[in-house]
């Protein structure tokens, strides 16, 4: 079995910190907008292939919590994959296409921008929570510590992109 990009993403996240599917889903919503319905089958596939091990933790009045850890096979596969060339990124964003239809349906444009702004505000909260989590998890006390931690930096980059897009939304409201 060769994992796909989502599965490699899950392996990478679990390699840094044993996690439940729920925790992984929340963090992935920030970077890939991936849903629970995609994550759990991928985790199951990785477990069956020997890339992950599941540890069950009992919870009061809830089903057992499954926490995933990576195996040596998973780490080896992740390392091998890290050496492969990058593919060209694919971006599909319905928002950019619909906003360009302002000439056809300009009464919808302001609502589209509001929808995007609401989404971005939710993402902002998730990213800030994740950055705080990483600061604690990796004991990142100084700005220099944070600069040296690539996981932190990728989410900080995403935070900057979100803020830039929020500023764009504000500017668009001024002209609509």
Descriptive notes:
- The chain is mainly alpha-helical.
- Helix content is about 65%, strand content about 10%.
- The protein contains eight helices and three strands.
- It has helices spanning about 5-15, 20-30, 35-50, 70-80, 95-100, 105-135, 145-150, 150-175; strands at about 20, 50-60, 60-70.
- It has a three-stranded antiparallel sheet with strand order 1-3-2.
- β2 and β3 (about 60-70) form a beta hairpin.
- α1 crosses α3 (about 35-50) and α2 (about 20-30) crosses α3 (about 35-50).
- The longest helix has about 30 residues, at about 105-135.
- It is globular, with a radius of gyration of 19 Å.
- The mean pLDDT is about 95.
Key attributes of the depicted protein:
about 180 residues; mainly alpha; three-stranded antiparallel beta sheet; 3 strands
């Amino acid at each position: 079995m060769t994992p796909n990009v989502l599965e490699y993403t899950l392996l990478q996240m679990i390699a840094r910190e044993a996690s439940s599917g729920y925790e992984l889903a929340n963090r992935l919503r920030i970077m890939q907008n991936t849903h629970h319905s995609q994550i759990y089958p991928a985790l199951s596939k990785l477990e069956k292939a020997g890339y992950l091990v599941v540890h069950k933790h009992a919870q009061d009045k809830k089903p057992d919590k499954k926490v995933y850890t990576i195996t040596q096979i998973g780490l080896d596969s992740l390392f091998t994959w890290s050496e492969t060339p990058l593919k060209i990124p694919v971006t599909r964003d319905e928002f950019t296409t619909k906003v360009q239809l302002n000439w056809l349906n300009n009464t919808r444009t302001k609502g589209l921008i509001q929808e995007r702004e609401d989404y971005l505000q939710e993402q902002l909260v998730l990213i800030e929570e994740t950055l705080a989590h990483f600061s604690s998890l990796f004991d990142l006390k100084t700005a220099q510590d944070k600069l040296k931690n690539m996981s932190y930096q990728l989410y900080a980059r995403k935070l900057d992109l979100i803020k830039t897009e929020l500023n764009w939304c504000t500017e668009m409201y001024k002209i609509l």
